[in-house]
Amino acid sequence: MAACATTRPATYLVETKGPYQLDTGDAVRVTVYGDAELSATYRVDDSGAVAFPLVGPVQVRGSTTKMAAGSIAAALTNGYMRNPDVAVEVAEYRPFFIQGAISKAGQFPYVYGMTVRAAISTAGGFTDTANRQNAVVYRRQGGEMVKGTVSLDFPIFPGDTVVVPERWF
User: Fold this and answer.
1) For 115, what's the count of Cα atoms within 13 Å in the CB-facing half-sphere?
2) Residue 6's beta-bridge partner residues?
3) Which of 45, 125, 146, 155 is the 20 to 30 A CA-CA neighbour of 35?
4) How far apart are CA 95 and CA 79, in angstroms?
């Protein structure tokens, strides 16, 4: 009986840590110090690149902002600028998606640090038949889509799909 009384910490199939990786739909603010004309906000396109003046598309999908700054600087060094100093920051995250037993399913803007509970609130709250204890999160990790049943305080990321199940009476 003692074994029945212990509680195990929740484990999730979806990753909860690690640096943010850029992907399609993100908008990045690129600052090229000393060149105001190149400093602007660029959107990551379907191929995972930003269309950067002078050098053309620069691949940033899967990169952190620091790695993206290095890629843009390297492209500018290749015949356009000598020792460019480039900074990249996320200007706008790609949206998250929510469906199931909530008031308004759909696509919503992501806010840094968002949890499942905040996502449900953004979508208008639970319906009367919603399971108010947990949800299912679908997240792309590497080349595959993984899912996990999570608590309402689980952190979500841009691009995640949150599904709020109905409860069984």
Assistant:
1) 8
2) none
3) 45
4) 36
Q: Which residue has the tokens 């790609």?
A: 94
Q: For residue 136, what are the β-bridge partners?
A: 149, 163
Residue 102 DSSP symbol: B
Eight-class DSSP state of 45: -
pTM of the complete model: 0.77
d(CA 107, CA 84): 37
CB 136 within 8 A of CB 98: no
Q: What is the pLDDT of residues 138-162, one digit of tens each?
A: 998 877 889 999 999 999 999 999 9
Q: 126 Cβ partners below 8 Å, 6+ apart?
A: 101, 102, 103, 120, 132, 164
Task: Read off the pLDDT of residues 63-93 as tens digits, 9 standing for 90 and up.
Answer: 999 999 999 999 999 888 889 999 999 999 9
